[in-house]
Structures are given as structure tokens and as C-alpha cells.
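Reopening closed ticket. The problem is back. First fold of the pair:
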Amino acid sequence: MATGNGSANLSFDVAIIGGGPAGTTAATMLRKYSPDLKVLLVEKEKFPRDHIGESQLASIGAVLHEMGVWDKVEAAGFPIKIGASYTWGRDNDRWDFNFYPPEKWVDEPRPGKFEGQRTSVAFQVDRSIFDTILLRHAESVGVTVREETAVEEVLCTGDRVDGLKLSSGETVTARWYIDASGVVGILRRALGIGADVVKELRNIAIWDYWRNAKWAIRIGTGATRVQIRSLPYGWIWFIPLGPERTSIGLVTPVDHYRTSSKSPEDLYLDAVREQPEVASLLEGAEREGTIRSCKDWSQLSDRVIGENWLLVGETCGFADPILSAGMSLAHASGRDAAYTIMELDRGEHDAKWLRERYNDCNRANVRQHIRFAQYWYSANSCFTELRDNCQAIAAEAGLKLSPQAAWAWLSQGGFATEHPGVPSAGTFDVSLSRQLIGLFSGDGHTKPDYLMNGHNKFTLNLTGATAGVMGFLHEGRIQRVECYERAGHRLPKLGYYDLVIQTLKQTSDAQTMVNMLSAELQRKNPSAPPQVHRSQMALCLSALETMLDEYWVTRAINRRKPLLQVSHEGTALLRTAKEDRDALSGETVSRIESNID
């Protein structure tokens, strides 16, 4: 319909601002599960275009698979991210974080399928290619995509969005609006929604792309690790994006940049020259020569949902990129926004509960990743020029760096928020979180032990608990999952938590509990290989550990029976570089090409 000045009014069910992964995930999910919905996505740029955020986490694979786009991404031939290598913590020793044990990695033809070992690893993506694949895929499932179209004005009344005025002269009206515009926050700012900026995590990122840099390590065909290297004044990322192109960037506090009296380019080039491993990998390589920079401030929006609008991705909040969590948060929130809109349309769940669930879960996810980033920066003794800054981060967060205090602080957000039924918080599960604290904290000898260790009687403690409900996203629906609530904590009757709950209702003896859990896991998945059952048992024990931490379970000792003892030392997920080299020795060495000592 034309308006009086000749421009057109466009009407859709859902209008999405921003064509990055958060926006395309939301758009694709809406069309997949509610194909009658008219969905518009407006993007101010013309794709392809470069963007940082190239290093992914393994959780993204399942979302890409659900979107129906994993095969297209795999066909692009991006490097497989099997983990990351860091210099971080008490000293400059290198240690490796593995999604999958590299010594067990099996070379498979590519393109492959989302199955087996590929479900445990991630991609390192050239965002100019990756984002274009996702945008074109959204278009292929019926999303109306408008590139080179900016939102010039948001029309709103109170907390309700009435429409969007576009640079094309058109006005868009919709029943629902999703802001996926990133830290720009077009809707958020127009609605006056504030954001809490973590004062001491105000960094600047400076980066360029290089041609023909050597990969630090090549495992089999196309598998590698991201390299994270500490400097006295920040850290460098080194991310191979393909056979020829590598993303290399510097993250440093904005105050250090200002006092250095250097241009972004000079600061960047000094950093890549000063870091010996990065410098060696760049011998014979060529810069593309376009220095890019952006502010890198961790922040969290005060609200992420309103009457007819939702915030997704970095519009919700931004967590420092040290954990590579940005893309995971973007895909997860985009998926959640689509699910929430569809459930609000169906009207089968209480609308207030749906809005509160979306707001609380997505803000908690960002907050927990910010919390981990604060801890990582506070605990890095390599930052010799940033000691005051690191101490300020710890002080702002109220963080003490003894292992026990660090664990209590990191676990404040709970381990059942992001994925009900699976004990994890932010990027890390319970075991890996404890290992990191042992790596970063104290003198290297005092490490936080599991609460379950040294005990053999575990009793379910539901005193004072009330019945509650959590949301579980599955196949286009938000399922209401019963849970126990007490003192701000929730215990879901789902997944590994429910396995432990049901087992402890039958026994308090540790050995009997372990045997019953093992038998139930075997019954549920009899054809799974032994390593899968071991991983599932580890998650059951992580659930028990979380329940002990939040007093859902009490512990005791029966002197006449053996004590439970679980070790997280030397696991495949987190190892020193030497431990990883030893694991990769022998018959696998022919598959490993290393360019670092």
C-alpha cells in the first residue's frame, strides 16, 4: 500500500533487523517450524562482508543442523576446530583445550555429515562466506531478505514498536520485531533500554587478515586449533580460516592503547612481531593490509524482551571474546527468540512466564560468560603491564583468586541455566571449570577438589524446595519441565539431573548409585561405544557435584565402605602442551604437522 509521499507500507508477521548469525538463525527457525509466517530480514550491508567472530564452539553444530544448513557450511571446507591452545594463567607455559581428544581423531572424507566425532567439534569460519551461506539459506526457506537497507527510524509507543522506517523510504509494520543489529542496538536504543557496561573489561580489538601463514598445528585433514597467545599488555588470536587465509588480531585495554601513543596499526604490528610463535608462523606470509579495529566492551542489556520485541545476539549483551562465546550466544538467542515468538502466538503457555523465561535465561547466559572472562583476565599473570587493570577487574567483580573462592564465585550463576538437564555454565562444564581454576589459581599445588570426593553416602535434600517450571527447547516447541526451586536455585527434573534424582531416591550408597547410573545409561543407549558411556557417566557425576554445591544433596562418610574418588587430572579436554604431545606420539605422529615447539 502506498503512503501519501509515494513510499510503500510493508506488512509482515516478524521483522528482523540484522543479517548476522543471530538474525538468520531466528529467521530460519521461524520459517522451519511455522512456514506460514511472513518474515522480513533487513541488513544494511551487502553480503559478503568481513566480520570478526570466526572461532566457534562445538555447541553451534547442533543449531546449524537444526536449521538445515550444516551441510552447506561443511561444503565450504572451513577448517575443523578441534580445540584451542593458550598461553594463559600463572606463567607462559602452553596448554591445550580440546573439544575432542586429538589422538583419537579419525580422518574422514570431506564434506562429511553431522554425526560421530563431528558433533563434538566446531568450525573456524571466514565470516564473509559463513554469514552469506546463512543469509542465502534463510532466503531459500522463504525469508524475505533486503540487503543494503538500513533502519533509519524506529516508531514506538511506550514499550511497543509500531514500525520501522527504512532507507528505501518504505515503512515496515509487523506483529513482532527482533533486534539482531549487534552492539549498535537499534531497537534497544530507540526504546531507551539501558545496558550495564563492565567498566574494567573495556578493550579494543585490532586485526587484519594474512595470506599463506603457516598453521600452528594440523591434525589429519583440515583439523587444527586456534592459537591464543598472551603478551604483557593483552593477547593475540591466530585463527586459520582456510588453506590460505588467517585472521590475526590483538585485544588490549582501551586505556593501554590511549597511553601507548601508537596508531592501531603500529600497536598491532608490534604485537605480532613481539610474540615469537606468531612471528614464526608469519614468515613468508603477506598481510591483506587493511587494519580494522573496534571497541570490545563487555556489556549486558537491562531487558531483552518487551511487548512485541526481542533482542538477540550482541544486542542482548557482549562477552569478551577470549572464550570464543559470541557466536554460540548469537545462535542460541536467535533460536530462543524464534521459539518464544511461536509459543506466544500459540497461546498455550502463560505469556508472562514465556517472557520472563526468555529474559532471565538469555541475560544469565551472557552474564555467566562475562563472569568467566572477568576471572580469566584477573588470573593471567602473563599481563605484566596490566597488573593494576587485572586487580581492578577482580575488585569490581568481588573476586578472590584462591581456588575455593574462585569456584564459589564462578558457580554463582548455577550450572543448569543454559541447557536444562546438562550441568554446564557458560562455555565450560563442571569438570573443566574446576580444572581451569586449578590451572589459574594459587601456587599450582592447591587445587579445588570435587565435593563428592572422600565421601560415600549421598542423600537427596529437598527440604524447603517448592515446585517450579523451566523451559526446554526441542523441535520448535518450548516444553515445560518440572523443577525444584529453593533459595534462587533450580533443579530440573530432566536429563542427567533427573537420572541422579531418581537414583538417589532409591539409594544413598555411592557404589550402588554408580552401578545404577551405569546400568541406566547402558539401557537407554545399548549400542553406544564405551567412550560415550564414559562421557555420560562423567556428566552424571557433574550433576551430582552441582547438586552438592547447591545443597540439593548432602554427603557423609561410612567408614566401613570405600570412598568415592573422582579425578579430573590429565583428561583429554584440558592438558599441558607436553601432555598433548605425548598423547599424539607413536602411531598418530604421521597425522600431525606442528609448526610450534
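Second fold of the pair, where the issue appears:
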Amino acid sequence: MSNELTVVIPARNEEKLLPRLFLSLLRQDYRHIRDTKIYLADADSTDRTVEVARNFSRELNICVIEGGLPSVGRNNGARCADSRYLLFLDADIELGDCTLIRRTLEAMKKQSLHLVTTDILCPGGGILDGLMYGCNNAVQRLSRYHRPFATGMFMLFDRERFDALGGFDELALYAEDYQLSRLVDRRRFKVVRGGVHSTNRRFQKMGYWKVVRFFVRTAFRGGRAGYYRDPMHRAYWEMS
């Protein structure tokens, strides 16, 4: 088993989309991918999420652990890991480039980075979905000049720096990924090409305008942790 990288995936009721992620992991040209430890942090799924993960454990080194909110699941996986790097992925995405993991790791090593992310694409969405994710990608790239912004869809962390920052805020009901990424030194942050493929289901469930409002409020609230812990934000998690 390779101890260079650990992958952590928080999940809840993702039986339909999880196979896409696992198949995209199997397509990666990173030579240690089949030996890399993958922790699926399950938040009491009521569908076949756990069964799907265990079926793929024949080809990938998958271990199912206890999850909860995304922040809790990610931290649980990180606590189980003993690798130099931690890759956090959302369960409903697909790696869009078979070289993505290898290239992000190479960038981490060569440039002594603390956090690497990538663009978000929505191949199955419409024009509005493309516009929404396009704006997100632009903000990510511009954030290199101020405070880093990355989403939990793809976050490759230097393990030592992740621990020093205290991990994800387990009391946050949303934006725990943004809260943590903004603490990273902008000189140690990078956005690589390649991208992950996401869906538009959150836009469909919450509505485009509501998602935009969440995004804008998050940007202006900055580091006020109490705001993200407010029970009024539970809908963001429940509608995901």
C-alpha cells in the first residue's frame, strides 16, 4: 500500500453517482492509484452507497468509515490517514482528466504547495449551469491574488499544513471548505487545469438565485465562523 496519498470521500445516499467517481479513479494514470487508501465516510446512507463502495473495493483500496456532515466525514478520514498528502473529493463528481491526480501531486512536490484544486465543469448541464460554474472557476483563479478559495469537490492538501490549520470546522453547516482554504498562504495555493465533472442537482433543488445568494453571502462573511454554524443553513446540507 502506498503511503504517499490518501483519498477521503464524504457521502450520503450516493449510490447512483458514486460509481462514476470510482471509475474515474480507476482511469487515473497515477501509478499507485489501486494501492492508495480511499476512505468513504458514510453519513448513515439509506440506499446502496456502502454496498457500491464495497463492490469497488475489489479494484480499489476502499475502507468505509463513519461520516456525518461533510466536514466531519473529511476529518474522520484525515485522522485515519498516515500519508503525506490528503485528497478530499465529493462523492458526486467525476475526475475529468486521467492525469489529474498525478499532475496535482507533481505540482505539490515541485512547488512546495499546501493546497491544490481544479476547475469545475458541468458537461450535462445547460448554459446557466456553465455560467455558474464558470464564475466559480474565475473566482478560484483570482483568489490566488488575495485569499485562496477552493471547494470540497477537489482539495489536495499537504497533510502537515492541514493538521496545522486544524482541519475542517465540524460545526459548520456549509462552506467549511471555503473557511479552510482561505487560511492557506496564497503563495502556496494553485489551481490546475483538467477539472472535475459535477452535476447541476444543487441548482435544481435549491434554485439558481438561492445558490447565488449563498455564494455572495459566503464571500462577504469571510472568516466569521459563527455565521456558517447557524441552524438556518442546515437546508444547504439537506438539499445537497
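Update: turned out to be a display glitch only; the data is intact. The chain has one domain: 5-238. DSSP finds eleven helices and eight strands in the chain. Please close again.
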